[in-house]
Hints:
By secondary structure, the chain is α+β, with helices and mostly antiparallel strands. It has helices at 102-105, 111-119, 128-143, 146-161, 179-195, 202-208, 213-224, 228-246, 251-257, 263-274, 278-283; strands at residues 4-5, 16-23, 31-32, 36-43, 46-50, 53-57, 62-65, 71-75, 88-95, 124-126, 166-168. It has two domains: 4-168, Regulatory protein AraC (Jelly Rolls), CATH 2.60.120; 196-283, Homeodomain-like (Arc Repressor Mutant, subunit A), CATH 1.10.10.60. Helices cover 44% and strands 19% of the residues.
Amino acid sequence: MKPKPLKVSIAPSTTISVRFDALPYFYKELHFHPEIEIVLVHKGTGTQFVGNTLKRFKDGDLTLLGSNVPHLWKCDDAYFKQSKKLKAEATVIHFLPETFGNQFWSLPENEKIKQLFEHAQHGINIIKQTKVEVAALMQQMLQASATERLILLHQLLHIISISKHRKLISSKSIAVANTKENNRFNNVLQYLTNHYTEPIDLATIAKVAHLTPPAFCRYFKKRTKQSFSTFLKLLRMQHACKLLAETDMPVGTIVYESGYNNVSNFNKHFKEVIQQTPLTYRKQFN
């Protein structure tokens, strides 16, 4: 997967793009763009990658991303099988940081919003009551005139900026600066998300990155702030959790479907990451 500097389409008559997407699946390549992005997922589940952090996304997730932050919403495999029952739906807002003019954000009244833009370089999950309020404003923006959208956007950003109901996604502020370096990491991420249910040894993944195994270990830890083995374990545990919650598949089968060939090793890793046994985790969904 090559790094994609994505061109966001914004009509000449406006400075803000607001749209409702209804698709078979979300844009599946890691990409970045200078526009700040706000995404409300109405329907869809899968793997989200923001900055240096991998996590699951689901219906109702609301995310704010800063300028040029690499990101990816990859829907689960079932969405790519042309199932008419599955749709990916989201409301998406794009706007450039200078939409209101750089001096506007420097006004003392906008200090908290200016700080919000800085925090958005980590990616932000918006939760609880703030999510409800922001989602309602996003719905209004879909129907609003160009001038009304400017007013609603400022109101929306103000609500997020003063709220405690938000969480940083990535531990590290990451914006694209080196295309060659992002090429390398994107190739690694693509390989892992396509093959994590299969055996992956260090020599194989190092070859994908065109590095020796020791150099790859150093590179991966510097890029993600965690070891390759830990990252792969988290990816597999996310998949196992999905199967436990959404299917009646026996745990013994899930072990192998998640890339493990040893039940005791799977149970050990599951308890280490999820802090529960697989059976205890499944009971919450029965």
